[in-house]
Amino acid sequence: MAWATCDVNWCGPIEDGRIYLLLREIGGSFERWFQANPTVQKEMLATALMSMSSGMRCDAALPDGFGEWGMCDRLYVRRT
After folding, report:
1. Which of 18, 33, 36, 54 is the most buried (most CB within 10 A)?
2. Residue 55 buriedness (CB in 10 A; 0-12 / 13-18 / 19+)
3. 31-37 long-range contacts, Cβ below 8 Å, gap at least 24?
4. What DSSP character marks residue 37?
5. 40 vs 79: CA distance, rounded Å
6. What CATH number does domain 2-78 carry, 1.10.10.1320, 2.40.50.70, 3.40.980.10, 3.30.300.20?
7. Is 0.70 topped by the overall pTM?
8. Closest to 23 (Cα-Cα) out of 65, 52, 53
């Protein structure tokens, strides 16, 4: 697991109810889709929406290498 500070550019559910997040690392090293951890996906969606509406960034726990479509295990809003 690796940590990245990101902007949330898109977020929401797909047809089967899974939540996906499009995260852009603030240094510009990646912009990729990640699946929210299913055990806390509603809470992660709320966190992502709050981040988008407030303009605040998030710290995200992502798979090593930041592979697209990987699992986002944790998402925290941060004041910069």
Report:
1. 36
2. exposed
3. 32/66, 32/67, 32/68, 32/69, 33/68, 33/69, 34/60, 34/62, 34/68, 34/69, 34/70, 34/71, 34/72, 35/69, 35/70, 35/71, 35/72, 36/72, 36/75, 37/71, 37/72, 37/73, 37/74
4. P
5. 22
6. 2.40.50.70
7. yes
8. 52
The domains of the chain are located at: 2-78
pLDDT tens, 14-70? 999 999 999 999 999 999 999 999 999 999 999 999 999 999 999 999 999 999 999
Alpha helix ranges (H) inside the chain? 41-54
Strand 2-13 versus strand 19-25 pairing type: antiparallel
